[in-house]
Amino acid sequence: MITGDLDDSERSALDLVTMVVAQAEPSPTFQPEQAAILRLCQAPLSVAEISAYLSLPFSVVTSLLSDLLATELIESRAPIVRATLPDRSLLEAVMHGLQKL
Amino acid sequence: MDFRSSDTITGPRSEDVLPTTATAAVKVVIVGGFGVGKTTMVGSVSEIRPLTTEETMTQAGVGVDDNAGVETKTATTVAMDFGRISLSEELILYLFGTPGQERFWFLWNGLFEGALGAVVLIDTRRLEVSFDVIGRLEERGVPFVVAVNTFPDAPHHPVEALRRALDLPDEVPMIDCDARLRASSRDVLMTLMRYLHSLAVPLA
Ligand SMILES: Nc1nc2c(ncn2[C@@H]2O[C@H](COP(=O)(O)OP(=O)(O)OP(=O)(O)O)[C@@H](O)[C@H]2O)c(=O)[nH]1
Ligand SMILES: [Mg+2]
């Protein structure tokens, strides 16, 4: 039901809630910022959370992530955004999840 | 940029680590004037301790003294807090408590464009601070609901009177809430989702 794959042109536009997952283990050969991102993203994490945990501005984090994406050290998944014609099944999934809160 | 060595960085607590299946994210923005309860609402429904993302804005200004043409640059750090709700193993909802001043909204690329919708929190003691944010959302075509945060000493107005005062169209839902309570904040989000659902078309 849920899809969010990107083509290359969209990859550069990282959103606050683009989900990031590391594709490599951090090692001493990486810059400290890159190693920290790889360590944080062993499990999926949003760009906003990476910015918060690293205490780095959003724009700094997106540029670090773009480099890591270019070298395929991380993978990203774009968020599901409001479409011109919003998808009812997505909204139903959100309501179902909220009901459990 | 000053960067702490990566061993001193604390990531999510172990109970906050998302499953590997969590790859689909959606977001909702909570807007409203200064002190209306945005941070409180994010905190009351979030499954994680609310986090903060920062952005810096540099403004060029011209010096006022005789050194004509000398430019001074001031950097302002703007913070935005946010929380998270895991809706299922795959789907994660992020909630952003946006800065009160709309001129800061554009600092975060796609903050509004990509959101499913917005919650406008209002304080009936200071309705005037809500006009600008509502206007901005309408301009950007972001669907929203209005939540009236019930502060103890705030005058209670019937919803229809508030609707007229805010010049809101009939179809925009309005709901009373107490942003400190999880169930109440959850109801606000449900109201937004039901409204978005009513705007959506069924899949063919
Ligand atoms: N009684 C009552 N107090 C509330 C409620 N919501 C927020 N407050 C209080 O109002 C104050 C401001 O709330 P915040 O959540 O910080 O407001 P904010 O919109 O994030 O404020 P800024 O980020 O400074 O614009 C806090 O002291 C809250 O405890 C509510 O529903 N009822
Ligand atoms: Mg706040």
From TrEMBL, chain B:
This is ATP-binding protein. Belongs to the GPN-loop GTPase family. It comes from the Bacteria. GO terms for molecular function: ATP binding; GTP binding; hydrolase activity. Keywords: ATP-binding, GTP-binding, Hydrolase, Nucleotide-binding. InterPro entries: Gliding_Motility_GTPase, Gpn, P-loop_NTPase.
